[in-house]
Amino acid sequence: MELSVDADRLEATMLAGVRLVAFFVIAPPFSYRAFPGTVKVILGLGLAIGVAPRVAVGYESLATGPFLLALLTQLVVGLSLGFLVFLVFAAVQSAGALIDLFGGFTLAQAFDPQSQVNGAQFTRLFQMAALALLFTSGGYQLIVGGLVRSFDAVPLTGAFAVDDLAHALVAAMSQMFLATLQIAGPLVVVLFLADVGLGLLTRVAPALNAFQMGFPIKIGLTVLFAGALFMALPSVVSSLTGDAVQAITGRG
């Protein structure tokens, strides 16, 4: 009995597995520490076996040197795509950090080793809510589907342009800051106006020491209006998922 191995398909599967595993290590929601590294590797290799018939079309075996270079290229591509997704969803965490900063919650800042997030209450709350919404809404399936389609944009044997990657990173960073302001902007404006009102009150009646009352007032306003932002998170996460898929595939 002879066991025949298709070397071309095996190499293509290995290259695809490197890209997929590198992506799962850094991209949310798979980068969460609750996912063991073994699970990420198995998920990446299993998906690589599934896409092998697609990525092996037209692939020819490489020599040792070019194959090692191709492995390094796929590692860089996977990490880059994962970082693009990370930047897109960092907008939710950054919005929570802005709310903590203007609402006076940063005094209770702590490090969460599971999510690798260093922030106060709303930072961690928004990050965990976005993570839960990605799974309950099926957004992670769209991200995985976009990752599979990335093999059409950047084939295994193809090279990627560094300037295109730099442009994508700059665009993702700009989109992150814009989304952060869109999410947390209304509440930040309310808290800023509260500070302005307290400042005017201090000028009119210095004996009241209005800024001492500012902490409970701002905390109350934050808790009151943050509920409205929290209710809008599902639509925000859905929109960010579309942006992440577009960043991965390079098209809308």
From TrEMBL:
Keywords: Cell membrane, Cell projection, Cilium, Flagellum, Membrane, Transmembrane, Transmembrane helix
Listed Pfam families: Bac_export_1 (PF01311)
Keyword Membrane: yes
Membrane topology: Multi-pass membrane protein
Compartmental location: Cell membrane
Listed InterPro entries: T3SS_IM_R
Membrane spanning residue stretches: 12-30, 37-56, 68-92, 125-148, 168-194, 215-233
Keyword flag Metal-binding: no
Record family assignment: Belongs to the FliR/MopE/SpaR family.
Protein name: Flagellar biosynthetic protein FliR
